[in-house]
Request: fold
Amino acid sequence: MFQWLLAPLGEDVIFFNLFNYITFRTAGALLTGLVIAFAMGPRLIRWLRAKQGAGQPIREDGPEAHFAKRGTPTMGGLMILMGIAFAVLLWADLSNAYVWIVLLVTVGFGTVGLADDYLKLTKRNTRGLPGKVKLAGQTGIAALGVICFMAVTPEPLAGGLAIPFVKDLLVPLGLAILPFGVFVIVGASNAVNLTDGLDGLAIVPVMIAAACFGFISYVAGNIIFADYLQIHHVPGSGELSVFCGALIGGGLGFLWFNAPPAMVFMGDTGSLSMGGALGAIAVVTKHELVLAIVGGLFVLETISVIVQVLSYKLTGKRVFRMAPLHHHFEKKGWAEPTIVIRFWIIAVILALIGLSTLKLR
Reply:
């Protein structure tokens, strides 16, 4: 909105030319998302406590330390979503189709997560939405998003898959890009959801990944930088840097209240929406495979669950003491802050490796 309203005034007042710059608007979106999350956090937490009573249900077979968290409200992801939505609407170029599509995917996944959280609270169990219903909702939203991406992205980018560390290679998937893109978005959403099990564990790696993809979006959308780095130029994708800034800001505001001991949990409302947003941005920028590196922590958590389930079904034995992976270390006696901080360190290392793909070609 600001770009529409204020940038034209730059002809008369040079200050307003700043609103033409993505970097300036990204910073503005970050600060706006942060302020909104800060401002609404205390009131939202009080309201959630009043409405939820006993708070988020705790798994009876989970680590013993989690029983001390009974009564902590969930659905804190609402403050992140509100921060993102307001910041994007204020600071992004609203004529950019990618901005609207990614925002709608994010809100759509957040709605699925909200329904899941609501059912967990009202039924007082950890099941929520039936798995098939949740997956169907995610798949439908992701498919609509990918179809819209394909419609506004020029060929051969629309149906192509870029390979990290290889310049000028675009594997033509054609219509197969649709199921692949859906897999990336839904997979990222559920991977973040699996990681969200300890105070502050998921939100910091999400912000790290958002920072990486804010940079990737910026250089992919700038033909000069894209040519220099020998990555595929995606016209218009630079505007998603503003979205990533809003995500980081909303995430920082949420972390203030989610830091140990957490005053609120993000719930599926937050984890599904943020994972879906990262997946959608990766699809737009043609860095789907890089997301698996930058978000490698989420991949490791997901793999631990898959390995645990397959091992138990095939052999009757468990590989880990408990899955996802962070619970395994809890069962081994690691303190929660130790697990969280070490996982953050892993997330930073993987993010740096992912960013190296932009130059090592």
Residues 203 and 267 are 11 Å apart (CA to CA). The radius of gyration is 20 Å. Strands lie at 160-162, 170-172.
